[in-house]
Design goal:
Elements (H helix, E strand, L loop, with lengths): L11 E6 L4 H10 L1 H4 L3 E5 H11 L3 E4 L6 H10 L5 E5 L9 H13 L3 E3 L2 H8 L9
Parallel strand pairs: 1-2, 1-4, 2-3, 4-5
Helix pairs in contact: 1-3, 4-5
Protein backbone atom coordinates (compact mmCIF):
# COMPACT_ATOMS: atom_id res chain seq x y z
CA UNK A 1 0.00 0.00 0.00
CA UNK A 2 1.20 3.46 -0.90
CA UNK A 3 2.35 5.36 2.16
CA UNK A 4 3.99 8.37 0.54
CA UNK A 5 2.04 10.23 -2.10
CA UNK A 6 4.27 11.42 -4.90
CA UNK A 7 2.68 13.49 -7.65
CA UNK A 8 4.50 15.21 -10.45
CA UNK A 9 3.47 18.63 -11.72
CA UNK A 10 1.61 16.87 -14.55
CA UNK A 11 -1.09 14.97 -12.69
CA UNK A 12 -2.75 11.73 -13.84
CA UNK A 13 -6.50 12.36 -13.53
CA UNK A 14 -9.45 9.99 -13.98
CA UNK A 15 -12.79 11.50 -15.01
CA UNK A 16 -15.82 9.33 -14.19
CA UNK A 17 -19.55 10.08 -14.02
CA UNK A 18 -22.70 8.05 -13.63
CA UNK A 19 -25.34 8.58 -16.33
CA UNK A 20 -27.31 11.11 -14.29
CA UNK A 21 -24.16 13.15 -13.65
CA UNK A 22 -22.49 13.13 -17.07
CA UNK A 23 -23.83 16.54 -18.14
CA UNK A 24 -22.75 18.05 -14.83
CA UNK A 25 -19.24 16.64 -15.29
CA UNK A 26 -19.06 17.92 -18.88
CA UNK A 27 -19.99 21.41 -17.72
CA UNK A 28 -17.40 21.21 -14.96
CA UNK A 29 -14.69 20.01 -17.36
CA UNK A 30 -15.50 22.82 -19.81
CA UNK A 31 -15.17 25.35 -16.98
CA UNK A 32 -11.73 23.98 -16.02
CA UNK A 33 -10.46 23.00 -19.48
CA UNK A 34 -7.46 25.35 -19.23
CA UNK A 35 -6.31 23.51 -16.09
CA UNK A 36 -7.16 19.97 -17.20
CA UNK A 37 -5.44 20.20 -20.59
CA UNK A 38 -2.09 20.46 -18.78
CA UNK A 39 -2.56 17.01 -17.24
CA UNK A 40 -2.91 13.39 -18.35
CA UNK A 41 -6.60 12.44 -18.47
CA UNK A 42 -8.36 9.11 -18.57
CA UNK A 43 -11.97 8.12 -18.17
CA UNK A 44 -14.42 5.27 -18.21
CA UNK A 45 -16.46 4.39 -21.29
CA UNK A 46 -18.97 6.96 -22.42
CA UNK A 47 -17.72 9.61 -20.01
CA UNK A 48 -14.23 9.61 -21.50
CA UNK A 49 -15.64 9.77 -25.03
CA UNK A 50 -17.99 12.63 -24.17
CA UNK A 51 -15.21 14.65 -22.53
CA UNK A 52 -13.00 14.18 -25.61
CA UNK A 53 -15.81 14.99 -28.06
CA UNK A 54 -17.55 17.86 -26.26
CA UNK A 55 -14.56 19.48 -24.57
CA UNK A 56 -11.81 18.77 -27.09
CA UNK A 57 -9.47 17.15 -24.56
CA UNK A 58 -7.31 14.07 -25.06
CA UNK A 59 -8.68 11.31 -22.83
CA UNK A 60 -7.47 7.72 -22.61
CA UNK A 61 -10.66 5.66 -22.49
CA UNK A 62 -11.29 2.52 -20.52
CA UNK A 63 -14.36 0.28 -20.52
CA UNK A 64 -17.71 1.41 -19.18
CA UNK A 65 -17.84 1.22 -15.38
CA UNK A 66 -20.27 -1.73 -15.19
CA UNK A 67 -18.30 -3.60 -17.88
CA UNK A 68 -14.98 -3.47 -16.05
CA UNK A 69 -13.96 0.18 -16.30
CA UNK A 70 -14.16 0.65 -12.54
CA UNK A 71 -11.74 -2.25 -12.10
CA UNK A 72 -9.42 -0.81 -14.74
CA UNK A 73 -9.30 2.51 -12.87
CA UNK A 74 -8.81 0.54 -9.64
CA UNK A 75 -5.83 -1.20 -11.25
CA UNK A 76 -4.32 2.20 -12.10
CA UNK A 77 -4.71 3.17 -8.46
CA UNK A 78 -3.15 -0.03 -7.11
CA UNK A 79 -0.27 0.30 -9.60
CA UNK A 80 0.27 3.89 -8.39
CA UNK A 81 -0.54 5.26 -11.86
CA UNK A 82 -3.28 7.69 -10.82
CA UNK A 83 -3.05 10.87 -8.76
CA UNK A 84 -6.57 12.31 -8.82
CA UNK A 85 -10.03 10.87 -9.38
CA UNK A 86 -12.95 13.13 -10.25
CA UNK A 87 -15.97 10.86 -9.86
CA UNK A 88 -19.39 12.47 -10.09
CA UNK A 89 -21.43 9.56 -8.78
CA UNK A 90 -25.16 9.61 -8.37
CA UNK A 91 -26.15 8.99 -4.73
CA UNK A 92 -29.86 8.95 -5.59
CA UNK A 93 -29.82 6.18 -8.20
CA UNK A 94 -29.10 2.51 -7.48
CA UNK A 95 -26.21 1.27 -9.60
CA UNK A 96 -25.93 -2.35 -10.74
CA UNK A 97 -22.20 -2.15 -10.08
CA UNK A 98 -22.45 -0.41 -6.71
CA UNK A 99 -19.94 -2.80 -5.11
CA UNK A 100 -17.40 -1.84 -7.80
CA UNK A 101 -17.99 1.85 -7.08
CA UNK A 102 -17.43 1.31 -3.37
CA UNK A 103 -14.29 -0.71 -4.08
CA UNK A 104 -12.97 2.10 -6.27
CA UNK A 105 -13.56 4.67 -3.55
CA UNK A 106 -11.95 2.36 -0.97
CA UNK A 107 -8.88 1.90 -3.20
CA UNK A 108 -8.50 5.65 -3.62
CA UNK A 109 -8.42 6.08 0.17
CA UNK A 110 -5.97 3.20 0.66
CA UNK A 111 -3.56 4.55 -1.95
CA UNK A 112 -3.92 8.22 -0.99
CA UNK A 113 -5.43 9.34 -4.31
CA UNK A 114 -7.09 12.76 -4.18
CA UNK A 115 -10.83 12.33 -4.84
CA UNK A 116 -13.64 14.75 -5.68
CA UNK A 117 -17.23 13.51 -5.92
CA UNK A 118 -19.05 16.78 -6.68
CA UNK A 119 -18.47 20.19 -8.25
CA UNK A 120 -17.49 21.90 -5.00
CA UNK A 121 -14.81 19.39 -4.05
CA UNK A 122 -13.58 19.19 -7.66
CA UNK A 123 -13.34 23.00 -7.85
CA UNK A 124 -11.30 23.13 -4.66
CA UNK A 125 -9.05 20.29 -5.80
CA UNK A 126 -8.13 21.56 -9.27
CA UNK A 127 -7.69 25.18 -8.17
CA UNK A 128 -5.37 24.25 -5.31
CA UNK A 129 -1.83 25.63 -5.64
CA UNK A 130 -0.69 22.00 -5.32
CA UNK A 131 -2.05 21.29 -8.84
CA UNK A 132 0.82 23.25 -10.38
CA UNK A 133 3.71 21.71 -8.48
CA UNK A 134 5.21 18.42 -7.42
CA UNK A 135 3.63 17.08 -4.28
Amino acid sequence: MKTDLTMNTRKRIALIAHDGKKQELLEWVAKHKDILEKHELCGTGTTGGLVAEKCGLEVKRYKSGPLGGDQQIGALISNEELDIMIFFWDPMTAQPHDVDVKALLRMSVLYNVAVACNKASADFLVTSPLMTQDY
